[in-house]
């Protein structure tokens, strides 16, 4: 069995002597597979080298096998594809930054159509052709590694074209595709040039099963297949089936959850305790509104800060009694939009500090860095957790933090996160654009009595652990079990 994703478990930097040094990769997909990868069939995880340092690490590993080169992959077998497979740095940059992250990510998160973007011109065409080269090279890498009749689980939008390309190379394989993002509504999706919209859908339909994190996203995918391809679509209570060109693709939903025991074990280590102690020393007996996100446009960190400012202005009783702890993990810094967004977050945080800080009390603690133990410490001290994405495939932080919070935490959650489908009943739901509404929900969450908060936290944890990563991965394997090659 093979698992395929763009980002792998490790991300490298180069030491002064040119030796690659590894760090854990970020994002929900890596968390899920790291935690699930031991399940069942012990798959080989095939990923891409994302930087020069990654390429160097791949080059120094036999057949790109990071585990065999002695890197700590958490016991998983990992092969990192690099230049030998034809993905040179320039092609990769156009494919990853130009198409995957600026086009497909923006499309599925409704960040795509603005007065000035997108522009479909010659450079867009070059990016798309690089994306095709990257997809083909990835498919060829998988075709080489797959045993006859093997199952291949292709993950996420970067590899949206791969199932079809892989099937052309290896019709004997059983192929699944799983989307970790939302899926765009049909009208919005149709803003892509028509040929490309078709290519994306046909790419996924090359798989025997197409998985999604929430029923809404599966249903949007079915709509797109019907409207853009004119495919025959069978809708079921959740998911369904697409019949096109003589093939059938099952459309399924597996709502990825968390492994609370594993998370608690990790959060029980000394590095997390050190961070917790340091944070508590700064916070004293104030209440904590916590959030941890990648510095990502769709996470809506700016409106979250505006809501916090609104809370302090409209409910001044919280001034001096609450601290907003914001963990922002740097992400996709190659894109100017992300750099600008991060700078705006930092500016707004400084403004809030200036408006409210008093001797001995700061309204917020913002850290823009990648520190996993610190994120876990932040979950532990949360009284209120703010998760307000514009749109999110699932949002695992909404599931992780309640399981770790030592005080029991009230969750303020966007209706537009996939997680709202399972956690909505125990959360305070907000419209992510409604800053005043979010401020009011923060006020209600801070004032919630202990008994209610404890009850809601239990309900959140029950829902969050319903399908832990091992079972989520096993469900994708199961989807393929019935398929005849
Ligand atoms: C999301 C995506 C993942 C991606 C992660 C981090 O969770 O669904 O596929 O790996 O973000 O983004 P990055 O661009 O750093 O891989």
Structure description:
This protein has 2 domains: 2-256 and 470-481, Rossmann fold (3-Layer(aba) Sandwich), CATH 3.40.50; 260-464, Glycogen Phosphorylase B (Rossmann fold, 3-Layer(aba) Sandwich). It has 18 helices and 17 strands. The chain has helices at 28-36, 52-59, 89-108, 122-145, 162-169, 186-189, 194-205, 215-229, 260-267, 270-283, 301-314, 336-356, 372-380, 397-404, 420-423, 435-447, 450-464, 469-481; strands spanning 2-4, 10-14, 20-24, 44-48, 77-81, 151-155, 174-178, 209-212, 232-235, 240-244, 247-253, 287-294, 322-329, 364-368, 384-387, 410-414, 428-430. Strands 5-4-1-6-7-8-11-10-9 form a 9-stranded mixed beta sheet, with helices on both faces. The chain is globular, with a radius of gyration of 22 Å. The chain starts with a strand and ends with a helix. GO terms for molecular function: alpha,alpha-trehalose-phosphate synthase (UDP-forming) activity. Pfam families: Glyco_transf_20. It comes from Motilibacter rhizosphaerae.
């Amino acid at each position: 069995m093979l698992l395929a994703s763009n980002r792998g478990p490790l991300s490298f930097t180069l030491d002064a002597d040119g030796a690659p040094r590894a760090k854990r990769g970020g994002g929900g997909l890596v968390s899920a597979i790291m935690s699930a990868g031991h399940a069942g069939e012990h798959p080989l995880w095939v990923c891409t080298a994302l930087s020069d340092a990654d390429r160097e690490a791949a080059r120094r590993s036999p057949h790109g096998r990071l585990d065999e080169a002695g890197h700590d992959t958490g016991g998983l077998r990992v092969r990192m594809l690099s230049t030998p497979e034809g993905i040179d740095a320039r092609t990769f940059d156009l494919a990853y930054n130009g198409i995957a992250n600026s086009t497909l990510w923006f499309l599925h998160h409704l960040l795509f159509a603005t007065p000035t973007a997108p522009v479909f011109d010659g450079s867009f065409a070059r990016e798309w052709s690089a994306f095709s080269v990257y997809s083909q090279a990835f498919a060829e890498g998988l075709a080489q590694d797959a045993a006859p009749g093997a199952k291949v689980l292709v993950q996420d939008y970067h590899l949206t074209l791969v199932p079809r390309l892989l099937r052309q190379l290896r019709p004997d394989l059983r192929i699944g595709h799983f989307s970790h993002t939302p899926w765009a509504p049909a009208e919005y999706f149709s803003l892509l040039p028509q040929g490309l919209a078709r290519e994306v859908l046909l790419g996924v339909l090359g798989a025997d099963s197409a998985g999604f994190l929430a029923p809404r996203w599966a249903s949007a995918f079915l709509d797109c297949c019907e409207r853009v391809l004119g495919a025959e679509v069978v809708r079921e209570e959740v998911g369904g089936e697409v019949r096109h060109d003589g093939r059938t693709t099952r459309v399924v939903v597996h709502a990825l959850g968390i492994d609370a025991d594993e998370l608690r074990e990790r959060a029980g280590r000394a590095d997390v305790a050190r961070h917790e102690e340091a944070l508590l020393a700064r916070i004293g007996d104030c209440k904590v509104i916590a959030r941890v996100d990648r510095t990502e446009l769709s996470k809506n960190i700016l409106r979250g800060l505006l809501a916090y400012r609104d809370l302090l202005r409209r409910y001044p009783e919280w001034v001096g009694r609450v601290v907003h702890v914001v963990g922002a993990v740097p992400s996709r810094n190659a894109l100017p939009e992300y750099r600008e967004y991060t700078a705006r977050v930092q500016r707004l945080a400084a403004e809030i500090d200036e408006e409210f800080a008093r001797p001995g009390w700061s309204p917020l603690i913002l850290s823009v860095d990648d520190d996993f133990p610190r994120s876990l410490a932040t979950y532990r001290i949360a009284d209120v957790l703010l998760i307000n994405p514009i749109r999110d495939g699932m949002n695992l932080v909404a599931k992780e933090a309640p399981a770790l919070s030592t005080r029991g935490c009230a969750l303020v959650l966007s209706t537009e996160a996939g997680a709202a489908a399972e956690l909505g009943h125990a959360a305070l739901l907000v419209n992510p654009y409604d800053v005043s509404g979010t401020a009011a929900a923060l006020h209600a969450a801070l004032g919630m009595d202990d008994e209610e908060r404890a009850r809601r936290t239990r309900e959140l944890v029950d829902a969050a652990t319903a399908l832990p990563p091992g079972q989520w991965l096993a469900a994708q394997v199961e989807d393929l079990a019935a398929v005849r090659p």
